[in-house]
Amino acid sequence: MKKKVAVIHTFLYSVEDLKKLFREKLPEVEMINIIDDSLLQEALSNKGITPGIIKRISRYAVEAEALGVDAILNQCSSVGEAADIAQKMINIPYVKIDQPMAEEAVRLGSKVAVIATAVSTIEPSSRLVESMALKAGKEVKVSRCFCEGAYEALLIENNREKHNQIVIETIKKASEENDVIVLAQGSMYHLLPLLQDIKVPVLTSLETGVEQLRGVLGL
Question: Helix axis angle, 122-136 relative to 99-108, nearest 10°?
Fold first, then answer.
């Protein structure tokens, strides 16, 4: 019988990218998508998770377990800390897409720049890197780099070129003072081909986030 993974999304842009990665990296796994883009809007409005977000994420996790999935993947960095709470309510793994990236960042350097376009993401993503450093027993300085105006350019103005320009400029500046660049959101995944001249490692979450499921599922 096929293993099943539920992916909880807060962002419609990520669905097709993750479907593609599941086909490539986990062809023997059935992917079930739960999408609620109101979660991200609520996180943005409140600059972080709220009781309402925690309740909905927990409810989706419980329902996913009831569907018979073997694991859950949290797609959105903004609500990762709500996933930690939801994990206590279920008996299957609920993993974060960005945790392998945070672990790799800590392994590669002692000065890590976290690049984020959503105000709701910058703190939880930075705290995740810091918690991985603590777990590894390594002293790591995390620089929080917020790309002012990039999120609005992409989702409100529908101007991907402007979004990319803002993010790339932020990355270039951060690369001058840090050992590793962490792209906190999946929406920046497509920028990798434009970052070939960056002299330090630039990490994204989608590929390693999906790959971790092979170990989680015992494949």
Answer: 60
